[in-house]
Write a structure and sequence with these properties.
Elements: H1 10-22, E1 28-32, H2 39-51, H3 64-70, E2 77-80, H4 89-100, E3 109-113, H5 121-132, E4 138-144, H6 152-155, E5 159-162, H7 168-179, H8 183-192, H9 197-205, H10 207-224, H11 228-233, H12 235-240, H13 245-265, H14 277-285, H15 289-307, H16 312-325
Parallel strand pairs: 1-4, 1-5, 2-3, 3-4
């Protein structure tokens, strides 16, 4: 098994190829790692490899089992996702009922629980029995980018598989091949996404992100020019993009990160916005290291305030004034 549909994670793919071939597969795994790096994709491809009727390097994609997996109707495979903000008791009951029945078409039953950290305490207690006394030929994948939220008793009953972010080169190659973007945009996005393919795809496909890029760039220029009127005009942009506010804050911090790297070390190779190097030089001349760090702290503080249900418009206005006066 080479799992060629999964980008990166060479060691994990080699390990699962080996255990599938040996037919000695542990009953429960916890896939840990940042969001958007392909944890659920890897679990799906492992399940395909387990169910595939052909003895080949990769799931063949054409046998009965592969076709059912690709059409989301394999009777021995189940995906559990949060119902709203949580994975609830009734979902764990359905999962346990599913596992209590014999496999229809293969020797295994496989379940993938995405965002497993969103199981409430009761749901986690319910799943413990299944993890402690698994049925024969059952494989469970817990997927989480916040594994420490899970109870230690749940974590300890799974084999941990820690997956790292993808390389910039891997993401850049994917964007060129699958999204037909120009080289400059591929490089910028691959630097910005910090190893998350999911985030790279979002950046590549999202018109919202293009708007965020433009607005943040204009905001930074207005702050540099001490143009208070222009800075406060961006309040309407922030208000219209409340759902994407975390992405906006993250992008603003990335810009100040570039300024900090250039200010401290002239580290051109580490700057993410390589196409805006002249602007980075200009902006960094007008700020001290202390001011840049303070601006990053201001943005992070504002995000924490909003996460605590602070008044949105007031918090954003205060942030903009503080950035302007830094």
């Amino acid at each position: 098994m080479s799992f060629s549909q999964v980008i990166g994670h060479k060691k994990a793919k080699a390990y699962f190829a080996s255990v599938i071939q040996s037919q000695e597969i542990p009953h429960a795994f916890l896939f840990e790692g940042m969001a958007g790096i392909g944890k659920a994709k890897l679990a799906f491809e492992i399940a395909r490899g387990i169910f595939c009727d052909q003895d080949s390097q990769d799931p063949c994609g054409s046998c009965k089992s592969c076709l059912k997996m690709l059409h989301d109707n394999h009777p021995d495979f189940m995906v559990v996702k949060p119902d709203g903000k949580q994975i609830k008791n009734h979902q764990i009951e359905e999962f346990q009922s599913f596992l209590s029945k014999k496999a229809y078409e293969g020797s295994y039953k496989v379940v993938c629980i995405e965002d497993a950290d969103k199981m409430n305490a009761s749901a986690q207690n319910r799943i413990l029995k299944t993890l402690e006394e698994p049925s024969d030929k059952v494989i469970i994948f817990l997927i989480s980018h916040k594994p420490l939220v899970l109870m230690e008793t749940v974590r300890s009953r799974c084999q941990s598989v820690k997956l790292n972010g993808l390389s910039q080169e891997s993401i850049e190659a994917y964007l060129k091949n699958d999204h037909n973007l120009d080289s400059q945009k591929c490089e910028t996005i691959s630097r910005l996404c910090n190893g998350s393919l999911g985030k790279a795809i979002y950046y590549a496909d999202s018109q919202v992100f293009e708007e965020v890029q433009e607005q943040v760039l204009n905001l930074l220029k207005a702050i540099d020019q001490k143009n208070k009127g222009q800075v406060l005009k961006t309040l309407s942009f922030f208000s219209s993009e409340k759902e994407n506010i975390s992405d906006i804050f993250e992008y603003m911090v990335l810009w100040y990160r570039d300024l900090l790297l250039y200010k401290k070390a002239k580290a051109k190779s580490l700057v993410m916005h390589t196409s805006e190097l002249d602007l980075i030089k200009k902006l960094s001349r007008h700020l001290t290291v202390g001011q840049i760090i303070k601006n990053i702290e201001t943005i992070n503080w504002t995000e924490r305030k909003l996460n605590q249900n602070g008044n949105f418009d007031l918090s954003i206005e205060l942030m903009l004034i503080q950035l302007l006066e830094a």
